[in-house]
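Quick start: what a row looks like.
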Amino acid sequence: MLRKQTIAKSGKFVQLEKVDDIMKIMEYQVVSTPALVIDGKVVSSGKVLNVDEVLGFIN
C-alpha cells in the first residue's frame, strides 16, 4: 500500500521491483535491509522509509 501511494504521489513513471534473492542484494553491497536502490545506486539502507522520505529520493 505504501509503495503504491508513494508512486502515485510522485506523478512519475516508476518501475518497482522487490528483491528477495540474497545474491542480487549482495551485488549492491547492502548489509542491512530494507534498502532502496534508485537507478542502480543504493540511496537508503537499514531503515523503513516513509512516503515523504522516498519522494525525496525520487524527486
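That is the whole record. The two ends are 20 Å apart (CA to CA). The chain has one domain: 2-58.
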